[in-house]
Specification:
By secondary structure, the protein is α/β, with parallel strands linked by helices. Helices cover about 40% and strands about 20% of the residues. The strands form two sheets. An eight-stranded mixed sheet has the order 5-6-4-7-3-8-9-10, with helices on both faces. A two-stranded antiparallel ribbon has the order 1-2. The longest helix has 17 residues, at about 240-260. It is globular.
């Protein structure tokens, strides 16, 4: 058992977050959960691996700044924190940066030696490292799943989810066994909307309880509005209902990782 201080593991816990399909909300969860952890006194860094380089938009990073960790890693830089950015509220994150035609080479290098990449990202001996993975790249999931403390697969109750879920389960052979670190999480829950509610019920019927989180993120217009102002949801509106969901999810993640 890992001893903890205020529920925070006294080791560096690694969490990967990936959408089941584009737009399901992994990037929003990474940014806002990281902020919730920071507000609870946890050392946390978030890493963007998505080619769109969108995680930076949640942290107020000026759009004219295009640098990031990817080129540094490919150039064998010694310290990943040389490429870190700190937001106005004190959050530390590593933007991907613009890599363009070098993106596939970057993925190949991570896939070939995921442990070396994770070691390069580590800086503090404790706290949380939250990695935003691209939804289209199952190869990264396969490369990293055995080396992380938790992997959250994000889905939303909309018409694409059922076929995408079936395809993912088949390709990853999840019917033969789900990795211990793997869990599905529902985002954008809106039980007041009939279609959303019906699709959500269908998916929850398909998924076993032991492969889903106990926490979901409710749909909240404040999330989109916060992104438009390049802030976290908590910064944008302290009264946003989504803040309670992100805070609860952050606490749940820290507790789960402390018991790993």
């Amino acid at each position: 058992m890992i001893t903890t201080l205020h529920g925070v593991p006294n080791k560096l816990a690694i969490i990967t977050v990936q959408s089941l399909f584009s737009g399901a909300g992994a990037t929003a969860i990474v940014a806002n959960v990281s902020n919730a952890m920071l507000r609870q006194g946890t050392k946390v860094r978030s890493i963007d691996v998505c080619s769109h380089n969108d995680l930076r938009l949640w942290y107020g990073m000026p759009l004219q700044q295009t640098g990031g960790w990817a080129q540094g890693f490919m150039d064998n830089a010694q310290d990943s924190l040389d490429f870190a950015f700190q937001s106005d509220f004190g959050a530390t994150f590593l933007p991907l940066g613009e890599v363009n035609e070098g993106y596939q080479a970057l993925l190949n290098r991570i896939e070939s030696d995921p442990v070396a990449w994770l070691e390069w990202l580590k800086h503090e001996p404790e706290g949380m490292l939250i990695i935003n993975l691209p939804s289209h790249c199952e190869r990264l999931y396969k490369a990293l799943i055995q080396h992380v403390d938790l992997h959250l697969c994000v889905w939303q109750a909309e018409p694409r989810v059922y076929p995408r879920l079936q395809q993912f389960i088949k390709r990853q052979q999840l019917n033969d066994g789900v990795p211990e670190a793997f869990l599905f999480i529902e985002n954008g829950v809106a039980p007041q909307l009939e279609l959303n509610r019906d699709i959500s019920n269908i998916i929850h019927h398909e998924l076993a309880d032991d492969v889903t989180t106990d926490i979901s993120i409710m749909r909240d217009q404040h999330i989109a509005e916060a992104l438009a102002t390049q802030q976290s949801c908590y910064e944008y509106s302290i009264a946003a209902s989504a803040n309670a969901d992100f805070t609860e999810l952050a606490s749940w993640i820290m507790k789960r990782c402390s018991n790993a």
